[in-house]
Amino acid sequence: QIQLVESGGGLVQPGGSLKLSCVTYGIPFSAYTLTWYRRAPGKKRELVAAIESGFATKYADSVKGRFTISRDDAANTMTLQMNNLRPEDTAVYYCYAKHEWQSNREHWGDGIQVTVSS
Questions:
Q1: Which of helix, strand or coil describes residue 45?
Q2: Which residues contact 114 (CB under 8 A, 6 or more apart)?
Q3: N or C: which end of the chain has fewer CB within 10 A?
Q4: Is the distance from CB of 10 to CB of 19 less than 8 angstroms?
Q5: Number of continuous H segments (helices) and E segments (strands) in the chain
Q6: What is the pLDDT of residues 89-106, one digit of tens each?
């Protein structure tokens, strides 16, 4: 059974840090591009950060210099280190995996809440 399981969310004060993790089950992890998306209340879903199988990364302009995405293929795990968090980072964060050459193979996690508030 294919599953993407997010963890590490919660409530943090502005300027604080959180580390999100996404563990995958049932997919050949190393063949996937992995992405964090987020959706804030009343807003569209947006890409936060992505990492390819070759470890190339990209980030939304709003998180560059504050967030770091990484992957551990041996552990089937992707992480997002979030530093200097701002209230506008408050959202539900989703893990997304897309096979790099079989485009119909894509999977979503259920999402995890991140709240930045004093």
A1: coil
A2: 9, 10, 12, 18, 20, 38, 82, 85, 89, 90, 91, 92, 93
A3: N
A4: no
A5: 0, 11
A6: 999 999 999 999 988 999
Are 93 and 4 contacting, i.e. CB atoms less than 8 angstroms apart? no
CA angle at residue 93 from 36 to 34, to 5 degrees? Answer: 20
Q: What pLDDT is stored for residue 45 in this prediction?
A: 97
Residues in CB range of 85: below 8 A, 6 or more apart: 12, 14, 15, 16, 17, 18, 66, 114, 116
* Alpha-carbon torsion, ordered 7, 12, 18, 24, to 10 deg: 10
Q: List pLDDT tens digits, range 29-52.
A: 999 999 999 999 999 999 999 999
